[in-house]
Amino acid sequence: MERSKIQVLYDSCHALFSQAGLPTFQQIHYLKNLLDKFEAIDVGIDEFGLCDSPTSDTSSDGSRGLLCGQGFSEITYIHIHECDNFSIGVFCIPAGKVFPLHDHPEMTVLSKVLYGSVYVKSYDWIKVDTTKCQTIGLAGRVIDDVITAPHEPCVLFPRSGGNIHSFRALTTCAILDVLSPPYAEEFGRPSTYYKDVPIPSLTGYAMLEEIPLPNDLVVHGAPYLGPSVVTVDDYDFCQIGL
Q1: Which residues make Cβ contacts (< 8 Å) with residue 137, sequence separation at least 6?
Q2: 43-94: pLDDT as tens digits
Q3: Cα–Cα dist 16/128, whole Å
Q4: Distance CA 99, CA 164 (A)
């Protein structure tokens, strides 16, 4: 039986991010090419769905329906998988909503805009001071552009590629994310938020200053209704049951 796209992505992430040492550039490029093939339907979203609730009704044959891509009124995260080594999920962002500047400490992130248009601004640190109670430093701008689907996936690394980024949805949009490793405050990987202050005399640079979690940032959850993902744990359980 042919594997679904999400199953192939999970299997590949497990193989690459569970190995000893960091993935090679060629391996990351392979994952990027996998993401580039994804459409909203591959993760259980009808991008043109216009229902009142983001969750559509169950179909007549009893199978799960699809999430209505245009039915989200708040920033919503669809959890697909998370383990110690990586996570896979989708952010659905309604038009006009903003996900503020935030970082990805010691993480590699691959992102694919599945539908819609989003304004992306991203930075990498040039010089940073973490000795005080809040992080502050000079950062260079990497992306300051509108990304409209279809568009090749973006890849960011711990110290390059635009590790600190923000999103502002120009239309309702969805972004498929792979993070490795995932956020984990207990392992020194919290999500930190920033405000940027451009430097008029230095085009393309800004001072970034850590800020508290914005009060107006609320991320809701929605069920994953795409093809089932068989994980290593599922496989081990099945083996035990044989």
Answers
A1: 125, 126, 127, 128, 129, 207, 208
A2: 999 999 877 656 654 444 334 689 999 999 999 999 999 999 999 999 999 9
A3: 31
A4: 12
CA-to-CA separations, 77 to 90, 143, 174, 191, in angstroms, rounded:
6, 23, 9, 15
Per DSSP, the three-state class of 214 is coil
Q: What is the DSSP letter of 235?
A: H
Which DSSP letter does residue 224 get?
-
AA letter at 9 = L
What pLDDT was estimated at residue 242? 32
List, in sequence order, the alpha helices (H) in the chain. Answer: 5-17, 25-36, 232-241
Quickly tell me which residue has 């509108």 as its tokens: 146
pLDDT tens sequence across 142-169 = 999 999 999 999 999 999 999 999 999 9
Strand partners, 191: none
d(CA 110, CA 127): 24
DSSP string, 30-98: HHHHHHHT--GGGGTEETT---SSSBPPPPTTS----EETT---S-EEEEEEE-SS-EEEEEEE-TT-E
